[in-house]
Amino acid sequence: MSTKPRLFSGMQPSADSLQIGNYIGALLQWREMQTTNDAIFCVVDLHALTVPQDPKLLAEQTRKTAAQYIAAGIDPEKSILFVQSHVPAHPQLAWILNTITGFGEASRMTQFKDKAAKTGTDSASVGLFAYPVLMAADILLYDTVAVPVGDDQKQHVELTRDVANRFNSRFGDTFVVPEPVIMKATARIYDLQNPTSKMSKSAASDAGVVWMLDDPGKTAKKIKSAVTDDDREIRFDRGAKPGVSNLLTILSAFTGESVPALEASFAGKGYGDLKTTVADAVVATFDPMRARALELLDDPAELDRILGRNAERALAIAGPKLELVYDRVGLLRRS
Ligand code: ATP
Ligand code: LTN
């Protein structure tokens, strides 16, 4: 048994490629955390189903997301890297947790309110409503201590804590109550064409989205056409200069240099220089990752074997926990 703290996180396979925000805001930090934690990373395909998906694309995107986790440095021998639907204990536990989650408390989840408002509440699915409960199941099945997530997911981890405490007090001590680990706020990346809105895999237009799997020429071109502003000063100021600030944040993440050091090094230089430097840094990091991801995707049978082995490792932890839960709530064991 590992004595390192258990960590769990996941991402939806909601696009063919991850974008630079997923890399900086999640993967880069996961990669560091996997050395000091007993880490589990999941491709949450069941969560992706809460909004309409093309079945063929979903299966492909699931493989592609897993390949990009590995290409970015998540080690499937050290960490557990698996596909959510391969471990049926997730929806099984989610059902039990649904029965102790209040309609009112689920209704207060801001992600649900935002997403449902987009399509109108009537056409939002029950699955979308129950999304945070499935997320609670993901976390609680593994005695997770730490849940690294972006700020937007904090409310879901709070709900997970409430549900875990409620279960424990009703049925006896069963779940570890997890803590959210809010990933570096400075790591928030904005759309290159619309630098006041978050870069997102499912953005309406991809002109301002930098994809990990895009070819280097395209990536460089997108970065060179990033929206900036009318003056010429390279200075971090999120309010007045969102485009330039975003480029500085990206460069800082890719080079490890602080934003003030970058500001100093660009004194007297123009936006063109900044963009070229960012493009070079991003391409230098993404190019080998893209090559590795494509290599993994070239041999889907081997990738599936890796995912299969990792699902077994996940099930070895989740299975006994689900049995304990079934016993606690009074479900009859099959003989
Ligand atoms: P979708 O558009 O499908 O919601 P997304 O690209 O916004 O996808 P998620 O799958 O919701 O990303 O999130 C995966 C992880 O990436 C989360 O930990 C999230 O905080 C992080 N992340 C996503 N976009 C950004 C961003 N622009 N800046 C920093 N982190 C981000
Ligand atoms: N909702 C999360 C993805 C997610 C997750 C989880 C994160 C699903 N299950 C469990 C941490 C722990 C998101 O949209 N980023």
Question: What topology does this entry show?
Answer:
Elements lengths: L5 E6 L8 H17 L1 E6 L1 H4 L6 H17 L8 E4 L5 H10 L4 H5 L2 H10 L6 H15 L5 E4 L4 H18 L7 E4 L33 H9 L17 H14 L3 H7 L5 H28 L1 H30 L6
Bound molecules: adenosine-5'-triphosphate (ATP) and L-tryptophanamide (LTN).
Would you kindly provide a brief summary of this structure?
The chain has helices spanning 20-36, 45-48, 55-71, 89-98, 103-107, 110-119, 126-140, 154-171, 216-224, 242-255, 259-265, 271-298, 300-329; strands at residues 6-11, 38-43, 80-83, 146-149, 179-182. The protein is mainly alpha-helical and 335 residues long.
Give an overview in words.
The strands form 2 sheets. Strands 1-2-3 form a 3-stranded parallel β-sheet. The protein has a two-stranded parallel ribbon with strand order 4-5. The protein is globular, with a radius of gyration of 21 Å. Helices cover 55% and strands 7% of the residues. With 335 residues, it is mainly alpha-helical. β1, α1 and β2 (38-43) form a beta-alpha-beta unit. It has helices at 20-36, 45-48, 55-71, 89-98, 103-107, 110-119, 126-140, 154-171, 216-224, 242-255, 259-265, 271-298, 300-329; strands spanning 6-11, 38-43, 80-83, 146-149, 179-182. The structure holds adenosine-5'-triphosphate (ATP) and L-tryptophanamide. Adenosine-5'-triphosphate is lined by residues 11-12, 14, 19, 21-22, 24-26, 149-150, 187-189, 198-202.
